[in-house]
Design goal:
This protein has 4 domains: 42-77, no CATH class; 100-190, PDZ domain (Pdz3 Domain); 194-416, 2-enoyl-CoA Hydratase, Chain A, domain 1 (Alpha-Beta Complex), CATH 3.90.226; 420-509. 43% of the residues lie in helices and 20% in strands. The chain has helices at 2-27, 30-56, 63-76, 87-98, 125-129, 152-159, 216-229, 247-255, 301-311, 363-367, 369-375, 423-430, 433-452, 456-462, 467-479, 486-508, 511-518, 523-532, 535-543; strands at residues 83-85, 100-103, 106-111, 114-120, 136-140, 143-144, 166-172, 180-185, 187-190, 194-199, 204-209, 234-238, 263-269, 272-278, 290-294, 316-319, 327-333, 339-348, 392-394, 401-403, 412-413. β15, α9 (301-311) and β16 form a beta-alpha-beta unit. The model is unreliable at 1-6 and 17-28 (pLDDT under 50).
Length: 546
């Protein structure tokens, strides 16, 4: 009897489960099924069109190109950051964020139609065989490349290659009559995302990041460990011009500053359920005053870091309103090896802000945002930035007002300097006249400079850019049709001399030393130093920003 009851119970239970499953299947996937049917229907429609064009169109066509154009146009209808990347460009796109490429390990410039080595990467293949800054590469694999109209893309094609492969080169070296031959074995070459790290004074360190790549967290950690040896108490993190990178890296950098379990960012999308990312206990700079510098080119990952720091009242943001990219992309490969970076979610700062600027009016208007900011004065005056109360949020500790809907608004505004007096100076720079002068000057005087100034401090304290050097630059400008502007020159003379001195320092000493000179009177850094070292002012601003 009990067995019969048990069997009856099991049968009824199975029937109930089947009914439940049927009910779920009857209601839950209706939308999903319709979507799949729509995709299949339009896939067949597009395939039919391609076959018709290929079989009946009046002229010959390139079906591959037509398909690529269709994909590009389709993605442009979605949002500004969903993009198509051809098979040929996939590797080039990934290199900066992966943090390395395979090659011989030099930086170079095409100077006077010759390939000039400006730096050998420390520990790289070229340095190991004895190649030096100032060497001119005139042959690659027996082929003459000097005076042939060489382009940067040509150099990349000749000198990059798979790790372990060899390349034979010949170079001319100053003060040596014969050519020198080198056999270089290609290797992995690092691409650094950290431009500079040094102490600004006895207590405040400075770090500048140019992107958020796969190696950024490691680079940042190494830099901080060196700064800790120098007793760093405060940090200025410069994210100006940093267009972003990996979400994972942005989370890892934010984690360096926030206490355990504090929300860093969350993402949410129609087909990508909400995900929260929180800080751990392992950060390297949880205490100490913190300032982050941003500008209109600071985007994406830069905005995740600055948004999290601002929302938790962990530090101050100084500069101008950031770019306003609050969308997350994921890469998806297509059948031929090409790739689409498809927007899959919005991201939100801890207070709930989505800082994505509007894109409903199309890609052209979206791209005009910078010009709109310029023409409306938003880059010169904080009061020109119109912030809607509907986009107002509160910071999570002190309850300060912060805003979404188009970038991270800084706590302290630094106006852009676009004085008309800079036009002449900027023309000299844009035409590479300043940089090419330095290349030539260092090439002729490298040994003398090194002997006279064996250490950077000696160079920084004693080296001066002479009137003769400036006149050489101006004369070259006139040769290239850039008419001398005395009024502009008087206004920008110190800036011109500072840049020349900084570039020489980079070529002779290090990248850090370039920034030590070039940023010595930077308005945002000076303001950050003023605020960060005045504990009372710093604390007051975290309660109520300027």
């Amino acid at each position: 009897m009990n067995t019969l009851l048990n069997n009856t119970f099991k049968i009824n239970s199975i029937k109930t489960l089947v009914l439940i499953l049927i009910t779920i299947l009857a209601f839950q996937p209706v939308t999903e099924v319709k979507a799949q049917e729509s995709v299949q229907k339009n896939q067949m429609k597009f395939g039919r069109l391609l076959r018709l064009i290929d079989g009946y169109y009046v002229d010959s066509t390139d079906i591959d190109k037509l398909t690529e154009k269709a994909i590009i146009n389709m993605l442009s209808e979605l949002d500004p950051h969903s993009v198509y990347i051809s098979k040929e460009d996939v590797d080039k796109m990934n290199e900066p964020l992966q943090g390395n490429f395979e090659g011989i390990g030099i930086t170079f410039n095409i100077f006077k139609d010759t390939l000039l080595v400006t730096e050998t990467i420390p520990g790289g293949p070229s340095e190991k065989v004895g190649l030096r800054a100032g060497d001119r590469i005139i042959q690659v694999e027996g082929k003459n490349i000097a005076g042939t109209g060489l382009k940067t893309s040509d150099v990349m094609e000749m000198l990059r290659g798979n790790k372990g492969t060899k390349v034979e080169i010949k170079v001319l070296r100053r003060n040596i009559d014969e050519t020198l031959g080198f056999t270089i074995i290609r290797d992995k070459i690092p691409i650094y995302s950290l431009d500079a790290s040094y102490m600004l004074d006895e207590s405040t360190g400075y770090i500048k990041l140019n992107k958020f790549s796969a190696t950024t967290t490691e680079e940042f950690g190494e830099a901080m460990n060196e700064l800790k040896k120098q007793n760093i108490q405060n940090l200025i993190l410069d994210l100006r011009g940093n267009g972003g990178g990996y979400l994972k890296t942005a989370i890892e950098i934010s984690d360096q500053f926030l206490d355990a379990n504090k929300l860093i960012v969350y993402t949410d999308g129609e087909n990508d359920p909400k995900r929260e990312y929180k800080a751990t206990s392992g950060g390297i700079f949880k205490d100490g005053n913190l300032v982050i510098l941003v500008d209109e080119s600071s985007a994406s990952a830069s905005e995740i870091v600055s948004g999290a720091v601002q929302d938790w009242d962990r530090g101050l943001i100084i500069g101008r309103r950031s770019f306003g990219k609050g969308l997350v992309q994921k890469p998806y490969f297509l059948t031929d090896g090409s790739l689409v970076r498809l927007t899959t979610a919005h991201y939100y700062t801890p207070s709930g802000r989505n800082i994505q600027k509007p894109y409903e009016n199309g890609l052209d208007e979206y791209k005009r945002d910078y010009l709109d900011r310029l023409s409306t004065g938003q880059l010169f005056n904080a009061d020109s930035v119109q912030l809607s109360d509907s986009l107002k949020f509160k910071t999570l500790i002190n309850g300060r007002d912060v805003y979404g809907g188009g970038g991270v608004m800084p706590d302290i505004f630094i106006p852009m300097d676009t004085s008309s007096y800079y036009r002449y100076y900027n023309r000299l720079r844009r035409n590479n006249i300043v940089y090419n002068f330095v290349l030539d000057y260092v090439d002729q005087n490298r040994a003398e400079i090194k002997n006279k100034y064996p250490k950077f401090d000696a160079y920084n304290n004693n080296f001066e850019v002479t009137e003769e050097m400036v006149n050489t630059i101006l004369a070259e400008g006139e040769k290239q049709g850039i008419e001398k502007d005395e009024e502009s020159l008087n206004f920008t003379m110190n800036t011109l001399k500072k840049e020349v001195k900084a570039i020489i320092a980079r070529d002779i000493f290090s990248r850090n030393d370039f920034y030590k000179i070039f940023f010595e009177d930077d308005e945002a850094i000076l303001k950050a130093l003023e605020v960060i070292e005045n504990k009372e002012q710093y604390t007051n601003l975290l309660v109520t920003a300027e």
